[in-house]
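the two lines:
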Amino acid sequence: MSIINIADSRQTLKLFPWALVFALVLFSLYTLAVSRGENVNAMWLVTAAIGTYAIGYRFYSRFIAERVLGLDARRRTPALRRNDGLDYVPTDKWVLFGHHFAAIAGAGPLVGPVLAAQMGYLPGTLWLLTGVIFAGAVQDFLVLFISTRRDGRSLGDLIKTEMGRVPGVIAMIGILTIMIILLAVLALVVVKALADSPWGAFTVFATLPIAVFMGVYGRYLRPGRIGEMSAIGFVLLLLSIAFGRTVSESALLAPLFSFKAETLAFMLIGYGFVASVLPVWLLLAPRDYLSTFLKVGTIMSLAIGIFIVWPDLQMPAISRFIDGTGPVFAGSVFPFLFITIACGAVSGFHALVSSGTTPKMIADETQTRFIGYGAMLM
Amino acid sequence: MALIAASVLEPGVYFAMNSAPALIGATPDSAAAAISSWGFAVTPETLSGVAAEVGEKTILSRTGGAPTLAVGMAHILSSAVGGSAAKAFWYHFAILFEALFILTTIDAGTRVARFMIQDLFGAFFPAFGNTRAWAPNLAATAIAVSGWGYFLYQGVIDPLGGINTLWPLFGIANQMLAAIALTLCVVVLYRMKRERYAFVAIAPTAWLYICTLTAAFEKIFHDDPRIGFLAHARKFAAAADKDQLLAPAKTLAEMQRVIFNDYVDATLCAIYVTLVLAMLGFAIRAIRAARAAEHVTTRETEDELHDLQPAGA
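prediction for all of em together
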């Protein structure tokens, strides 16, 4: 009897900090929702997000891991069973976490929320918080789990074996058309950002020779020195940004790098063709290193920046365009807000990653919770 | 994070960057007037001031989200390091960062699409599936590139700003893919005989089905030309019949192209809806079969090392 009581009170004691976190989240959300007129500090948003994600990870993902799926650490993963040193490689969980995070953090989570801001910050924030906890992270986690228990096979393949041949083919066609739209939209974002902007266009062009140089450096000049290669690439990158100002101010060079959107579109199409045909080591792999470092570094520095600056939110919580007449995108909150913030809250693209490279590298089945659910929360 | 970066901007600047030229005009004066009339006071000087600070000629109608985000990031980062003198540097750093992000996705994505095309056609013509041969490689790449290239070009010449039309389509496609993936999760949970917990996957799946199907139907059939593709096509067709030009089209040929694009987009939407509904039907069939079966029917890889207990026992 008394033993049970002690266990109970320990349990309660352990949960107590979480009650505090919960209260903090509620208070932040309340501040975000109720403040009108004055500017609200961005810190409230950050606090609400971190608190909510921590609670979601601690309780909901644990519930899924233990009760729903019954993860089993004794079970050997595809990486262990088929270790071929090429695709199937058992990988340290932190490294794999980084890999998975870099793969799913595409442009979608950057663009969607920006567009959704036309309705004010509140609707977007609420959907981002609930969507990630109950939909996005759950999807990444479940698909990763399912694929890990089935040799790390791909989504289309899994649908074929679990649901039948016809649904499998349908899913594959669906995935293909979705990829095509996805690439078109992403390319469009680049075109819109670079059109008629010599500075931007110059720096982006500069990354191509830098990446090729890195590729040659890593393969022929000093093979295997990845750290060295990345450092050189990074310095060159910063130089090219700085030199971009000179280009944009020079009367001679600026017109050379001012492109119309149509021209840029055709250049990008040509680039996509060449990049897909070229060997991976020349252009893709070195740029992947570069952009992974850049991704993680930039997101961290932005987070630190927010903590240092404590900026105010200038947007109203809910703007008048909530009725669907906004100039940025047309349509009312339901359903269009939920498809506009696509990748940030829940993304089908992640299912491709979760059933692509990650399940082939996972070393322990119980890590699917940390990687599948955890990486999405970032 | 991106939401924060967008929200620290002045609303006036935000709308100036994200509205199509058809709505706000091409000069700081016209834009400031239009946006102020929506209730977000902003002066022409502010708009040209921001442009000068980040080292660009103009910030008007730079739709797509990336420049907006870059200005927001530059605002935060330059307050932390370097002050306003460094704003232009941070802005271009942010642009480069986003462009690199996206270019990585584009070439990796084109490669994946190429493999998928070779895989699909390879089922009918085995020679086509050989990913090491040059001819199928080039042909499949060409198919993939022209696929997204077509929509890219359409978006670029779209006078409404492109993103306005294509982003909903992208959102619908992406969320439907998520719905398909989650449907698979639901089916597997049933086949694992863990239907007691299936709600974990059913709830988000149902929500995604509701959202995407409503959105897709509205994009196709909505009466408002700003939302519905068909209504938009009808509006332009009616005008073209009377030899009128509707802004932003400048020639009758452009009018026809706008109409044609509307039908392409509507068809694509309809294809997505059909795909997703078909998946739903197959899922229900699979779930009923799984419920009828007495044992776990899912096919996990056997682990030869030790005899496994049924999951979670």
